[in-house]
Design goal:
Layout lengths: L8 H13 L7 E4 L5 H8 L4 E4 L1 H9 L7 H12 L4 H13 L1 H5 L1 H9 L12 H7 L3 H17 L5 H18 L3 H6 L9 H17 L11 H19 L1
Parallel strand pairs: 1-2
Length: 243
């Protein structure tokens, strides 16, 4: 757990460097919310990482420039871009948006999407089941919002350790309310953690099993590892066919 006064690219650069020093060799995908300098910080430590811009943040940023009466219609047309089946189809939809009725009224929107385009199109390398997880950082933001409420009610802390202890206890309570009933029912309800390190170890063991070895209905009955291998084989086949 890391603590700093403000979130910044330099703060994340220190975290990423520490993760690398602790043995993390590579990161496949980084889903970001638009923090200035964050993509460069990721690329400096993990240059092979695919950086994906949170689509929900882009939509929120776009709709700031739209009148209330037009918002639903604009959001519907933007959905045609990020819900496209392929990168080329998405490019065509964005071009259509740029030359359509909304660009005359709200020209800033297309400029925003073009500016982030290289970090939007990475999603089209993956099947729909994976894309759903790359559209938004809302799950993390929801967790952060709950932590901020708890910290705000406390007011101040005599030192960093006292803040860490409160956050740890808050996380235990938040996890119990998560919709992931499997974690709650299979693990948290059956264990009483002896310490912070004991909690980390046991939850990490459950996470590895859940994310690697178990079949998931959302992945058509495959385990995550099987699904990843199948997707890799499909990409290789498509590459050979297009060569």
């Amino acid at each position: 757990m890391w603590i700093d006064e403000n979130e910044s690219a330099s703060f994340w650069a220190r975290i990423l460097s520490e993760l690398q020093a602790r043995g993390v060799e590579d990161v496949l995908i980084a889903l970001i919310d638009g923090l200035t300098g964050f993509p460069e910080a990721i690329a400096a430590v993990f240059p092979k990482t695919q950086i994906h811009q949170c689509t929900v943040h882009l939509i929120r940023q776009s709709l700031k420039y739209v009148s209330y009466t037009d918002r639903k219609a604009v959001a519907r047309d933007l959905k045609e871009i990020y819900n496209s089946p392929t990168e080329s189809a998405a490019e065509a939809e964005l071009t259509a948006f740029e030359t359509g009725r909304w660009n005359e009224k709200y020209p800033t929107i297309a400029l925003i999407w073009r500016r982030h385009w290289e970090r939007i199109i990475t999603v089209f390398q993956y099947p729909p089941q994976i894309r759903k997880m790359l559209y938004t950082t809302n799950a993390i933001e929801s967790l952060n919002m709950q932590l901020r409420k708890i910290i705000k009610n406390r007011g101040h802390f005599p030192n960093d350790d006292s803040a860490i202890k409160l956050i740890f206890l808050a996380l235990r309570n938040i996890i119990k309310k998560w919709r992931n009933g499997k974690l709650r029912d299979e693990y948290l309800n059956q264990h009483w953690f002896l310490s912070l390190e004991d909690a980390k170890r046991k939850i990490e063991s459950w996470r590895l099993s859940y994310n690697s070895d178990r079949p998931h209905s959302a992945l058509d009955g495959f385990t995550p590892l099987e699904f990843a291998m199948q997707h890799k084989q499909t990409l290789l086949l498509n590459t050979k066919l297009s060569a």
